[in-house]
Amino acid sequence: MKDGVKGMQPNKIVSEQQVLRACAELIKGVLPANWSFTASEALKSKTRQYDSLLTLTSPDQRSVNYMVEVKRSPTAKSIVDAVTQLRLLLEGREGELPLLAAGYLGRRSQEVLKELDVSYVDTTGNIRLTASSPGLFVEVQGAQKDPWPDDQPLRTLRGRGAGRAVRALVDTIPPYGVRELSARTGVAAPTLSRVIDLLERDAIVTRDSRGGVASVDWADALRRWSQDYELRRSNTVTSYLEPRGLEALGQRLDDVPWRYAVTSSLAAQRFAPVAPARIAVLYVDDATSTAETLDLRSTEAGANVLLVEPFDEVVFERTVKLDGLIVAAPSQVAVDLLTGPGREPAEGEALIDWMEKNEDAWRS
Amino acid sequence: MPGDPDPLYVAARAALLDTLDALREHHDALVLVGAQAVYVHTGATTLSVAEYTTDADFCIALDLLTDSPLLADCLLANGYEIGTNPGSWISPRGITVDLMVPEVLAGAGSRGARLGPHGNRAARRAKGLEASLLDRQRTVITALEPSDERSVEIWVAGPSALLIAKIHKINERLDSPDRLNDKDALDVLRLLQSVSTNSLSNRLNELRTSDLAGDATAQAIDVLPALFGQSDSPGTRMAVRAAGEQSLDTIIAASLVALVEDLVDELAI
Q1: Distance from C-alpha of A239 to C-alpha of A55, rounded to nearest angstrom
Q2: How far B268 CA sits from the closest chain A CA (Å)?
Q3: How many Å apart are CA A91 and CA A84, to the nearest integer?
């Protein structure tokens, strides 16, 4: 194996064309002496479904032809798919071999390609070229860590980590650095960074000169979160009936030894002037055992209690006991209402109004 | 605020205290029944309150009713007027007061109860009230307004007796459905929600074997499943209509069906 060669400067690769050029340069650099190299620059067209053809010619004028597929940041899965595609195109084309060119190939991707006996090259200098006639074997190691781990910007706040991060950003008064917020809230710093990036692109968060968070429009952050999160879809929800009504449920919840947090209307009516709740929505760790303890009836029609096993434990953070009920943080209640049915989104906005007027009461 | 009584209840309670004042010499013979008695047991619930729950309904225990003063004299002297039906009185505040006697004790006749010196129009006969003479408790009734300091201890029918009365009333008028009766079905739900199934069934079992109320109790228990067994049973539909909130329809129906089923199961043991 040759010593590692210096790959491209780790600038962000923006197009497949750039990946292809960079990879072609690297291949030229590692070819044995007296071998020559040509590349067709053409990318995909209607008639040609591969990205390029590389021809490597040995000193005795015999050639190896590689049909190239370019991937900017492939996963092992997308590599398998690309190789299948290349093999289909190569059927009946004698003397041509598949080659995968990529921005970066992780160790797992390289292993997959070796197993498939497919040559590869990435822009950091990971190269493996094999051919039997004429005989060719080149293996070079490039970067072992992805220089662009955040190459794919976060596009959604649907996930669990994103939810935790939004709660941290909304509930905590800026300014703060990412690491400081991470330490205070227990949310991983990389997750916070990605969510901050997304919210900054949406002009909801602004940063100071050193990259810390200077300001958060928390109301818009909640509204943005509600586009991707949904109480009834992001969590595991089961419907029950408490035939004696919500007052009876409230009395039974007084001083239970396990944790729970009330959200949606029943929680909001303790903060803001909203109509009395018709349905109680409770975050609990285990819906089945909770229903048993509270003597709730499983039902499809006429449910007045929803037991919700949460997307993340953050729903149990910053809870407060009001009028005998443990209530989720207003930020959680607001996003749950914004994503609810019927009049709930309007109640969510009413709660946000209350939160704006009473920021001291819930934000620190 | 949640928990504060509805203004209608406050007004109804004041009118009830007015009537108790007018009939102060007959307190021992009166048992509070009807919606106001239900409220004594259930307190304020989130279920809506209808205007007609302001009526004050009493069952008269004939064996304790003294010959004087005359019921009619007491009421007329305090500005009450005779209503269109026997036993129906209108208070100066416009609240209807109904004086009733259980059918089996009411003597001959079809509407007015035979009350000896009190006449045939002071009270009317009513089915299903027998149990309120057995299942009843001395209860202090106070005004709901802080400025009103009145407080009287009277007999109030127990939840089981009220349940029997409501079931008879609903069943009697099944063939002539009327929005005014829908609220009786909602009262059934209120009672079932507020009182444990076990205590209701224990009391109903006692009443079922009593001489005075045995038949009325057994009949009420028998018709429960037909009235409230399903979400589309007639009684269930009445309760849903009375609540008058579409978003609550299925919850009210499911709750009523579930609690009636619990009670029927418990009574069958």
Answers
A1: 65
A2: 20
A3: 11
